[in-house]
Structure to design on (979 residues):
């Protein structure tokens, strides 16, 4: 006999121990030595997945259909292998955005929508409250069964008054406990270190209890020192009952697959799993160990399910004992009171752990995503209370009580009905509706708020229709005919065989249709319009969470804000001290002395919003911050411009390409310049050799005649005079050459003196003809002048212009044939310029030399002999003409000979400065 | 982060192997195997693969840490 008082005392001692652990962990965290920072603790806290439904229910499922319990744990094992990306993304986003719940996560992803957060909360509450009811039932039942030790007796459906119903008292106790755990301090921040430590401890307890019973039973099965079991082979009826265990089968395969898939989703999306895996995560490196330690935990807790189920069926062959209670009834049947008590504590751990975490998660969602948005609407008209933090805490506590009372009411109403027993997987399907929004939102940028809303609504409605209502019908709350055919007798709308899909397990059927509707609506509606600015911004933050590890969600805000108002707002939720502390730390990180000195920029506003998000959720925080700042809406393009690193990179690469093209062009120019330089160098060499050559010829004759005069004193006077004349002319030629070289250098370097005046070209031409008269006469060349009567006035240096004409005439004379040679000098007005043409009837200039003759020492190679002259006349002429603002060129005449022409701007007296 | 990419890649490979062993026609084969020490071969197979996957995941996670 185990007295009820002992059971209650042990239970309370156990719960007290939990509380002590939580308190100890909180104290350590306050001293900066966090116990939950250990990855093992994190992995163990994830095992809150294993509820009383696992602890008692796995054996029941195994006894009923053999392999059926395994996919619920294989699915999570497989998905855990992908946590290195999937969960890491969620954790990283969760930290950056200070996500408080799965509702907050989805709301934040699709543009911080309060509506979406509210919808997720409603689905979670509707889907999960029956699951909480199941835990209450497990505690109440296990208490009742244990109380009758050593008698094995199933509890009767009770009609006890409320205050004698152990489940109600348990519900109230758990509510009190959860309030103490989850909202112990006035601090509404999202993390609960003590809670996580306690949950991890509970995971150890339930595992030890399960393993202890499993080993005990297995020992018995193996015929070792343990319970004596009936030999199954003697009883054909028993053999039949044992068939699922002894000859298990995977079929129907679609159930095997669907339930694994479902469990894989649930292990990340159940509100409590999200709470421990994402919200309570203190270091993302913990995930690495959880990837294998959490599956290992699942493996161990399932290791003895089959032996225990086998032993239960052998021990209670008549089927009078519910297989779900084998865990407890086996040690009772074999009279092991301490083992029974240990199993009871294990079951209590499993149930309380689930209830506490789930209730905290749900209450956070209810207060942040349902109550607060309503209050905020209310506050638009009326002044909100000053201490919002206290109010929020009260709301959260009320939500905890409410959730547990709802759970109890469901338990009380459903009782033994299918609606309670079968709820585990039905709950899973409800939370699986979050999968398209969450997982789609982590890998696909195109999802919009409307798409997520449509998907959730569609999936939820199908879930209600194909799973929840049938479970009510099976419980006798709805006419069973409801399941047989759809509304109005439409068979193809039958809830359990939608569109004629029969032969599937109802869970598989419901999962398939609800997710199909969900994903379909999500994709269709999301494709309706492109994401708007904030959706695109959040999408980038979520999808690229792993790509830019240290990037905060700031810089996406433009407007006017006041630091003091932001701080006052935060103080109302977080309290003065915590707000001050947070702002001071933030100010320090930005190298500012005090929070008041912070710039009211996008980064600061983002910080304040994230700080508030940790308390009230992202959607409410956004609205709250918006209420004290003047935000200017950013266009989608601007947001994308700011965010899209890819576009920045594209811009950079475009710039690089441009620069590289510019570089290539510069290189080509440089190469051309280099070639030109080499050419010039060659020209200079040529010039030097030409100059020396030109100098040597007169020098040689000067030297020869001087030597003759020096050596032979008897030369007669006439001869002597002739020789001296040659000496003089050669010296003149020398000095002309030197003068020309100097002249050219002067003009080229810009140091030449210019005495410009208003000239008449006719005068200049006359003067030049007169100067060259001797030369022309020597070669017997005719000169014809064709000059207009009006004076051709230009602004120029007379001497230099005469020099140009001299050169041109000398050049023409040089090439004109002697005796028959004819020179024509023309002057015409062409628009605003005067053109002077010196034409000869010589051999003309080769086409390729027309330009070259104006380069230094490029004497025309026409004719057989090297032409006389310095080779500097035309280059000097070009320098002069160009300096005077004109141009000079050579052209061949159509008949015979060449024209050397130049143009100078006509000068009218009023254009003079 | 090439190392963490490698880590994820190895786990993804393991995930695909586990998928193949547990959720493909391969998983149906053990149903027809003979009993081993009176134990149903399907249970042995499933638990064996499960344990193997966890062991490999642990090996990948711990080895990749150095």
């Amino acid at each position: 006999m185990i007295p009820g008082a002992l059971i209650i005392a042990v239970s309370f001692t156990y719960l007290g121990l939990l509380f002590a652990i939580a308190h100890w962990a909180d104290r350590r965290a306050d001293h900066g030595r966090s116990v939950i920072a250990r990855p093992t603790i994190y992995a163990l806290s994830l095992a809150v997945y294993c509820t009383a439904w696992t602890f008692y229910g796995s054996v029941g499922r195994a006894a009923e259909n053999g392999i059926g319990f395994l996919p619920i744990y294989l699915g999570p094992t497989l998905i855990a292998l992908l946590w290195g990306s999937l969960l890491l993304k969620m954790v990283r986003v969760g930290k950056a955005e200070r996500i408080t719940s799965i509702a907050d996560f989805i709301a934040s992803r699709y543009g911080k929508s309060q509506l979406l957060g509210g919808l997720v909360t409603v689905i979670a509450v509707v889907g999960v409250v029956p699951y909480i009811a199941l835990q209450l039932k497990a505690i109440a039942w296990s208490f009742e069964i244990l109380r009758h030790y050593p008698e094995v007796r199933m509890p009767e459906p009770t009609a006890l008054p409320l205050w004698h119903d152990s489940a109600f008292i348990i519900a109230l106790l758990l509510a009190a406990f959860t309030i103490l755990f989850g909202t112990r301090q006035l601090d509404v921040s999202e993390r609960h270190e003590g809670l996580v430590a306690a949950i991890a401890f509970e995971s150890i307890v339930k595992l030890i209890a399960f393993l202890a019973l499993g080993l005990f039973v297995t020992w018995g099965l193996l015929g070792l020192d343990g319970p004596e079991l009936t030999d199954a082979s003697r009883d054909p009826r028993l053999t039949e009952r044992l068939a699922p265990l002894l000859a298990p089968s995977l079929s129907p395969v679609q159930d095997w697959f669907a339930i694994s898939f479902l469990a894989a989703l649930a292990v990340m999306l159940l509100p409590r799993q999200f709470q421990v895996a994402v919200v309570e995560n203190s270091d993302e490196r913990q995930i690495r160990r959880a990837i294998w330690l959490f599956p290992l935990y699942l493996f161990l807790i399932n290791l003895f399910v089959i032996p225990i189920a086998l032993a239960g069926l052998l021990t209670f062959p008549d089927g009078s004992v519910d297989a779900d209670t084998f865990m407890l009834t086996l040690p009772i049947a074999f009279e092991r009171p301490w083992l029974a008590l240990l199993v009871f504590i294990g079951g209590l751990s499993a149930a309380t752990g689930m209830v506490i975490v789930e209730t905290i998660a749900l209450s956070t969602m209810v207060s942040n995503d349902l109550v607060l948005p309503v209050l905020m609407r209310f506050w638009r008209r009326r002044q909100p209370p000053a201490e919002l933090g206290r109010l929020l805490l009260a709301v959260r506590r009320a939500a905890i009580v409410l959730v547990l009372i709802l759970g109890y009411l469901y338990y009380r109403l459903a009782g033994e009905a299918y609606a309670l027993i079968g709820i585990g997987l039905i709950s899973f399907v409800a939370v699986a509706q979050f999968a398209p929004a969450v997982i789609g939102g982590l890998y696909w940028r195109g999802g919009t708020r409307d798409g997520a809303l449509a998907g959730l609504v569609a999936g939820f409605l199908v879930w209600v229709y194909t799973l929840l209502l049938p479970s009510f019908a099976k419980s006798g709350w709805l006419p069973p005919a409801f399941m047989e055919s759809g509304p109005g007798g439409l068979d193809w709308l039958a809830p359990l065989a939608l569109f004629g899909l029969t032969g599937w397990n109802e869970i598989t059927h419901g999962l398939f249709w609800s997710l199909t509707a969900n994903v379909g609506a999500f994709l269709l509606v999301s494709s309706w319009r492109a994401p708007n600015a904030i959706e695109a911004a959040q999408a980038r933050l979520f999808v690229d969470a792993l790509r830019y590890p240290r990037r905060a969600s700031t810089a996406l805000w433009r407007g006017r804000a006041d630091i003091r108002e932001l701080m006052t707002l935060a103080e109302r939720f977080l309290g003065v001290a915590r707000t001050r502390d947070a702002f001071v730390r933030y100010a320090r990180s930005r190298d500012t002395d005090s929070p008041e000195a912070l710039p009211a920029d996008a980064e600061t506003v983002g910080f304040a919003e994230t700080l508030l998000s940790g308390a009230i959720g992202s959607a409410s925080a956004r609205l709250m911050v918006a209420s004290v700042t003047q935000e200017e809406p950013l266009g989608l393009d601007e947001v994308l411009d700011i965010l899209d690193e890819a576009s920045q990179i594209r811009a950079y690469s475009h710039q690089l390409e441009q620069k590289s093209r510019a570089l290539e062009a510069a290189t080509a120019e440089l190469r051309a310049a280099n070639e030109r330089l080499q050419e010039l160098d060659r020209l200079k060499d040529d010039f030097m050799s030409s100059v020396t050559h030109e100098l040597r010829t007169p020098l040689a004759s000067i030297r020869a005649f001087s030597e003759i005069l020096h050596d032979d004193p008897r030369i007669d006077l006439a001869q002597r005079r002739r020789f001296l004349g040659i000496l003089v002319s050669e010296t003149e030629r020398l000095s002309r050459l030197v003068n020309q070289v100097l002249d050219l250098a002067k003009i080229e370097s810009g140091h030449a003196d210019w005495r410009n005046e208003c000239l008449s070209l006719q005068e200049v031409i006359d003067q030049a003809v007169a100067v060259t008269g001797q030369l022309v006469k020597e070669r017997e060349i005719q000169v014809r002048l064709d000059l207009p009567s009006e004076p051709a006035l230009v602004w120029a240096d007379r001497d230099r212009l005469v020099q140009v004409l001299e050169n041109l005439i000398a050049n023409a004379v040089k090439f004109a044939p002697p005796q028959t040679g004819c020179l024509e000098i023309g002057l015409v007005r062409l628009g605003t310029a005067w053109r002077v043409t010196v034409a000869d009837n010589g051999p003309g200039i080769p086409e390729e030399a027309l330009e070259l003759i104006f380069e230094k020492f490029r004497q025309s190679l026409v004719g057989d002999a090297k032409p006389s002259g310095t080779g500097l006349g035309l280059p000097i002429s070009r320098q002069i003409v160009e300096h005077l603002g004109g141009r000079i060129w050579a052209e061949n005449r159509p008949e015979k000979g060449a024209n050397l022409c130049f143009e100078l701007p006509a000068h009218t007296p009023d254009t003079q400065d | 982060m090439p190392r963490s990419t490698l880590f994820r890649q190895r786990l993804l490979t393991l995930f695909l192997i586990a998928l193949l062993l547990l959720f493909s026609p391969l998983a149906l084969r053990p149903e027809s195997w003979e009993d081993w020490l009176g134990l149903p071969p399907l249970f042995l197979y499933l638990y064996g693969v499960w344990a193997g996957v966890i062991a490999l995941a642990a090996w990948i996670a711990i080895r990749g840490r150095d």
In short: The radius of gyration of chain B is 15 Å. Chain B touches chain A through 28 residues (CB under 8 Å). The CA atoms of residues 30 and 43 of chain B lie 9 Å apart.
